[in-house]
Design brief:
This protein has 191 residues and is an alpha/beta fold. It contains 8 helices and 6 strands. β3 (35-40) and β4 (43-48) form a beta hairpin.
Length: 191
């Protein structure tokens, strides 16, 4: 039996990289907004529950997706079926583009975006641009629904320090290229 591999990494193109190494028949797409941060190399602190969705990249509700969802739910990770995981990944990438760089620049917690008119305006502008790119590629997002999703993630993870802010604090490379870099690249490529 070949077990599925699920990419919960931030950014675009991760499932493609995994599939190029093990084949699409082993890959499921996934998104999550569960918040945590590293305390020590082997100790993480859970800071917030968020939505977790998985699905086949072609949207089929297969047995392996349902089995994987059941396994995640059984261990206490509330997980839902996605029949359009590519669009769900885009929604998460847009949220990450709105939250991560903004919080990383000032070492702010995610909830800070909701408490600052300036940070909220920046996140809104990023949502406008990223949604336009996603829609140009065939997604059908309502920008106002996207913004509400972004701000919902900020509320759910208000005490969390984004992964990008954590990376900067720890002197690590960030995911900026996989998040905003890919949005910019695809925006330029597709007008």
């Amino acid at each position: 039996i070949k077990c599925p591999v699920i990419s919960f990494q931030n950014g675009l193109g991760n499932a493609d990289v995994i599939a190029s190494n093990i084949g699409w028949d082993r890959v499921l797409g996934g998104t999550t907004s569960i918040g945590s941060f590293k305390i020590t190399p082997f100790h993480y602190k859970h800071t917030a529950w968020g939505r977790t969705k998985i699905g086949e990249m072609d949207g089929r509700p297969t047995k392996r997706v349902h089995s994987t969802i059941q396994a995640l739910n059984d261990v206490g990770i509330p997980t839902e079926l996605s029949t359009n995981i590519k669009k769900d990944i885009w929604a998460t990438v847009i949220a990450n583009a709105c939250i991560n760089p903004v919080t990383a620049i000032g070492n702010y917690k995610n909830g800070s975006i909701l408490n600052s008119r300036g940070l909220k305006d920046i996140a809104s502008c990023v949502a406008d641009e990223a949604t336009a790119v996603a829609n140009k590629l065939g997604n059908e997002f309502d920008v106002n629904v996207v913004k509400e999703f972004v701000f919902e993630v900020c509320r759910m993870t208000h005490d969390n320090l984004s992964s990008m802010a954590q990376d900067i604090l720890n002197g690590k490379c960030t995911e900026i290229q996989q998040i905003t870099g890919e949005i910019i690249r695809l925006g330029k490529k597709n007008g």
